[in-house]
What does this fold into?
Amino acid sequence: MPLDSESKRRLATHLEYYRELGIHDFYRRGDAPPAEVIPVLTAVAEPPQPGGDKREALAAIRAEIGDCTRCRLHQGRKNIVFGVGNVDCEIMFVGEGPGADEDQQGEPFVGRAGQLLNNMIQAMGLRREQVYIANVVKCRPPGNRTPERDECDTCGPFLMRQVETIQPRIIVALGATAAKYLLGVNDSMSNLRGRIYDFRSTRLAVTYHPAFLLRDPRQKAEAWKDLQMVMKFLGMAVPGKKKEE
It folds into this structure.
């Protein structure tokens, strides 16, 4: 069945992102429509059914946050952006804070940066629904500025409780703010990237924030190296590059 114009646009966007990452080999899934081209990626098995206990625990954390006024960020927000995704995930992505689209919809990473994050997740052979996504702060900083330290310190404990409840095998910190806060260090991205850290009862890796990659697409290949490192840690198949002819 032919694809409509919107589906074609989305497919073209995904293919262009894969090419930027250096993925050029594709195959067609046997039971897929002829027009559906799928990258050669090995996805992890379907996640188990979400655990009720974890969902209840997260609901309790959200209830404790309430209509939060603990820091100045509440003054300009429309919605508290708590987190979304599979509570039994292996990978949890953590950004710094909501933007305008996220504040409007009440869900993390739904704007342009969110679309890029979706592409990054798909390049790993996963779907957005298979991971969990959250931020250090739950309210949008005015003008999308970087959250200040006291704001992170006020909101961060709720994130830590989300991590303790979900217990992912690895956290991917998106950007310097999230990485520095979670690791408790003040260092450059070049020094923070390229390693798997012990973090509480899980592990943590650092990569660039999708919003930064939109501003500097040249760094997408570096971000892909970080994601490949995460995939190797999890035992996932990592696609190779096509040999030059």
Notes: The chain has one domain: 46-234. The two ends are 33 Å apart (CA to CA). DSSP finds nine helices and eight strands in the chain.
